[in-house]
TrEMBL record:
<dbReference type="Pfam" id="PF01814">
    <property type="entry name" value="Hemerythrin"/>
</dbReference>
<feature type="domain" description="Hemerythrin-like">
    <location>
        <begin position="4"/>
        <end position="134"/>
    </location>
</feature>
<dbReference type="InterPro" id="IPR012312">
    <property type="entry name" value="Hemerythrin-like"/>
</dbReference>
<protein>
    <submittedName>
        <fullName>Hemerythrin HHE cation binding domain protein</fullName>
    </submittedName>
</protein>
Amino acid sequence: MDTSNVLRQHQEVLSLTSKISSYQNQQQIKEKAFEISLLLGQLAGKIKTHLAAEDKFVYPRLMNHPDSQVRMTCEKFAREMGDLAKAFNAYQARYSGAGKIEADPAKFLTDTGNIISALMTRIEKENTSLYPLLA
């Protein structure tokens, strides 16, 4: 199976998270809340597209793999991703506009650091432990 599309999506997600992470203090958050809200919207779109691709192409193939270890790895990743998707959706709702970002820039910085760390960990795990199973 060709994983180039999902790996490209990973790079796009990482690029957007890097841009969002470049705002590192409360003053920057307040001054650039609108730009950050646009980046968050783009990130949410990329993540939703990525999850749809995984749900349609990657996970069904791995869930039916003849090797039980592959199936177990896939099931574990699917459970973990469900939790991360819920956490990201809650984060997105909490900061769905510039006003919400500006309202508490310190909390935004903390929450953003946490969600970006979780996304980066997930992408790393998929790239090193899941997608090689498709080769």
